[in-house]
Records
---
Amino acid sequence: MLLHPPVLALLVVSSLVTAGLALGVPFALRVVRHWDLASGSERQVRLERGTSLVSAVLGLVLAAQALSLGLFVFAAESLSSQITGAMCATGTLNATPFGFPALGLKVALFFGAAVWLALDRLDRDGDDYPLVRGKYALLVGLAPLAAAEALLQFLHFAGLSPEVITSCCGSLFSVEGAGVAAEVAGLPPGPAMAAFYLSGALVLALAARTWWTAGRGGAVLGAGAALGAAAVTAFAAALAGVVSFLSVYVYESPHHHCPFCLLKGGYDYLGYPLYSALFAGTACALAAAVSGPFARVRSLALAAPRRAARCAGWASVLLGAFYLLSTWAVLRSHLGLFP
Amino acid sequence: MLARQRYLLDYTLAALLRRKGRHLSLLLVYGALVFALASVLLFGSALRREARALLQDAPELTVQRLVAGRHDPIPAAYLAEVRKIRGVAAAEPRLWGYYYDPASGANYTVLVPATDPPPAGSARVGRGVARSRGLAVGDVVAFRDARAEPLPLRVTHLLDPASELLTADLFLVAEGDFRRWLGVPEGLYTDLALRVRNGREVRTVADKVTRALPDTRPVLREEVARTYDAVFAWREGVGLLLLCAALFAFAIFAWDRASGLSAEERREIGVLKAVGWDTGDVLRMKLWEGAVVSLTAFLLGYVLAYAHVFWAGAPLLAPLLKGWATLYPEFRLVPHVEPAGVLALFALTVVPYTAVTLVPTWRAAVADPDAVMRGAQE
Amino acid sequence: MIRLEDVRKAFHQGSPNEVWAVRGVTLTIEPGSVTVFRGPSGSGKTSLVSLVGCLARPTSGRVRLGDRLVSALPEKFLAELRRRTFGFVFQQFHLVRGLSVLENVMLPAYPEAPPYAELRARAEGLLGRLGISDRAGARSEWLSGGEAQRAAIARALVNDPQVLIADEPTANLDTERSRDFLEIVAGLKAEGRTVILTSHDPLVCEAPLVDRVVPLRDGRVEGAA
């Protein structure tokens, strides 16, 4: 089913992203090998100028990845009417073994690009490019990720056919089913909710603390790793929480666990603000986490805390909005608080 | 940070206005591409919605009899068999068929409505038929029946124009007239329409039908919908694929545009860098320029496409996507914009444009700041 | 204080048409002084002021601004330095066509993004000081040579730089206008700014306000070892 408009659009985006990163790799290798700031040679000047292109490319990759995430779920949703047994996006994603892995890689690439950009902005604040080698080594790592994502996505759409009988969210995210998705759906709502709010409180507290101390120029040593770990944990717990209890409250149907149906009009498009806040907030938290520790580098002593503080501030606001919105969705539900 | 972006945007807008002519042609080509793509997408998705809406009233399960692998009239006796199957809420026989009218050279669909059939000797007629034969309410139209004898029918109603996609070629007649006209003997029907008590059991019921009546074929509404969907999406895809060639041409055009900066513009960038703009500032300024051009072209193309599809009835696309009936229905599609469609269109136009113009833009932005000085000397 | 230490600059390095425009210059420029780089065309004086003004990085050697080593700074920081510390008046003035004189004057401040009203007032003040207030709304390509130079000087001063660099400032002016220019320079010197000129015009080189003339030939300071 490659000749479907959103699918064509996705393939165009993923090939552009892959091409952009792939073209960056030889440049990155040159930087790692030949970078010498002390030299005023034309090669060094060319390398330095190249970095501004790579930054712009990565900025676009991040934007394209956000667009592509939305479009991917949309495409899955609209294709579901053509696939036997699929009633929503879950069914389409589940129709080939590549659907969910492709989605996972998209998410990973989104956060990868966000972290890279955070490092890049920070690097440019220092007058001696303190992070340039590490940054470009990381870029070499992102390129295969993009290629794998493009490949899996292609295989997924190429493998979709109306004859494939797939299981839809009803069976995949049902308590009785087997597999990771079903296990997540089958989590008892009480502990899932506890994990959701505890990890949320932790990441909010750490982000707020980073914002507070770093904003006053204080050192945030150690907080970087803690904040990063908390952000990742909270992200995972948030997704699990959406599947295990939030969806149930929103749909007001005890056996409907699908995380994608939240994006439908029938549920006030709640998924859009919810997922936007979660993804953007987590990206900001990760950016703060990777920026903070570089306060130890001489040329970043001022810039690193400032950037960390700004990112952490945004992370607090966005993640706070996510948890408030989730809580509101639970409270307004006609389903009892602990069904 | 924001104030800086505002200054850059300000400068960009001034620069765009200074070079109106140059950007106007780009805007026209870009807008035309968005228009073409958006027309295909909007029209395709509107047609699919329409078809889906029509099918909503169709029976969940239709039972046809097969003889020699072809659809054959079904005996009334089968009705009783089907009604015995558990899970079937209701079963009705249906009479419908096609009639080729040599006078207008078109195929009509002739149907006996299940409820409130017209009295014998009269017909309710679709607008497409009425147009082609110049019929009005009260006119009498005569056809030859199956024995070549004249069958006069008085037109009592024209069908609602809102449903024209479905009803353009429709004749609603009484059962007796139908049998005489198309030669279907008493006791035979075209097919059986089934309502199933529980939506989830459609497949089970279909299974039971084939076991009870081995020479029949059950058709699921879901399957029909999927086929329609796939056919429309496929045609839309082919249309898009054709436009991909246009997209490619546009990409080359945009690349050429972005790399072929005039000496004047190059000098201007050189001056900006010499007076203290950073490469990043110039790059951002240029990206703003691209964003302004893209958004203008996108809005322009999309609004025009919307008007083209929903107000004008997509005259430029109808042959490609509709061509399924001899009588072209002249109907208004229900305006509807899907966020997915907008995103897909964005991904198909703005993303490639930005990607293609990025490298030439960057090349212009990294101009040597001292080039202005050297230019004066050399 | 600006200090150059054995500064060299090559173009097209590594290719057959490699040129060394500056071949080892060591030089100190005192703050508040007026310095002229004098030499025939091709002597490297324009390349040298480009290095001094952070428009380019030397291929080798060091450039210090005060106690800061600027020759190894990334381009982004050079641009910032250029914006805040130096003002440039180019030989062809290089005003941006199609923009008004006032907009041209405000251009170098855009990346700094000061409040608009403040920036506008600053630019108008400079135009007034240079006596071309009445031309503020005119498009830059409608100016006469003398007016264009004043507009270019106003643009160079909009970020209140410490150092003004002018490349062949009198090349396109008649004697009277050249005298006017020297008067403006005298005013800047009186404010304590450093002025660096390139010229082979005797009117400039022999002007009494010039503190020092650096003769250049073939990319070296003449008379230096």
Note: The beta strands of chain C are 2-11, 19-29, 34-38, 60-65, 68-69, 86-89, 163-167, 194-199, 212-217, 220-221.
---
Amino acid sequence: MTPTPGSTTTRATDEPPPTAAPPEADSVSSEKFVTLTAHEMQVPISVLSWNMGRLNRVLGTVSERPDVRRILDRLLEANVRLTTLVEDLLNLAKLHEGAFRVYLRPIQLTEVARRCLKTLEREAERRGVVLTWSWDQAQIPLTRGDPNRLSEVITNLVSNGVKYTPRGGRVAISIRSSSELAPPTVPIPAGKTRTGKYLLVSVEDTGMGIPNDEQPKVFQQFFRGRKAFASAEGGTGLGLYLVRRMVEQHGGAVWFVSREGYGSTFFFTLPVAEPYPEGAEATKSA
Amino acid sequence: MTPLLGAQKRVLVVEDEEALLSTLCDELEESGFTVEPAVTGEEALRKIREKPLDGIILDLLLPGGMDGLGVLAQLKESEQTKDIPVVILSNIGDDEKVREALDQGADAYFVKTRYSLEDLIERLRLLFQQKPAPPAQRISP
């Protein structure tokens, strides 16, 4: 992708310098506390989520009052945010423990994307944002991926697009084959070859865009831009950091182009799966 | 919610969190299942021996001496129960744990926070209808 005039391309490798000092005992116990709390929060989240779904169906059939609809929408949205927050915290804890792993197997990425987009469609509609996607199924080979992690990657990128795009705007997702890990303007890790067989996923929005001075920090832990802070949207600044880690663990690359006031396009690539040897057994998946 | 077709299916739900257990049981009953609840691994095994079942929904972390994988192992060791469809429903989303459960013979693995109840029930309905339980599954205590 050639960056548009005025836009800049940023790769996902910018990190704050590592600290040499070992973590203090207090910070270790704080991390442990956060992990335990996040684990425990999953139970009440499931109770809330499942019962809100039930309430939504029950009230949806007996009440046509718009205020009831609005209340339910707010509850459902808050629950989605809470779920995402807890998942991010658990993922971050695993990264810090060195226990964050991906289990790669041949998968059809379009199926993962379709499930994510189906879930996000309602939120986009509620916000007045048009969500579109396009791919030629016949041209999309299998990729080696972990469907749970890739679902988190796609959900994160698309929900960011929806959140930061004003009413009347659009978010477009595409998946296609590519012969390069990343375009020449994006540096790649040493030892990696730029050419090969990849899938290229793009998530393009017509949102607020990212100011030039903030672009190098976008994939850092806990970074949130000035506009994100100023907006009514919540967030921890962990989402894009986790996206980067997950994509890199798949052997892919992630980057973006953005122009303030016009929107952003995030890209990521994943290696195409080698065909299974004849007679090989497919891995059972959840 | 799509009602069940054909004979009512009897499902055992093994879950120690009361609020989750009652929510799940309510929804399953409204969808046409006959539901047996259990809160420990030991209670689950006792109920499995008592009545024939068409499916089991099994949490992994359970109080007492036996966790969900322990229950699964016992089920799969017995000729009478090894073919009852088992769905793991857990908050543990680690792929390692998913793989372990599937390798031990679970038919599916769902992470609670990743599924709406409606979606979950629909998947269970399809799974339990697709895989009929064996005719003789009662086992001696």
Note: The beta strands of chain A are 8-11, 105-107, 130-134, 143-145, 170-180, 195-205, 254-259, 263-271.
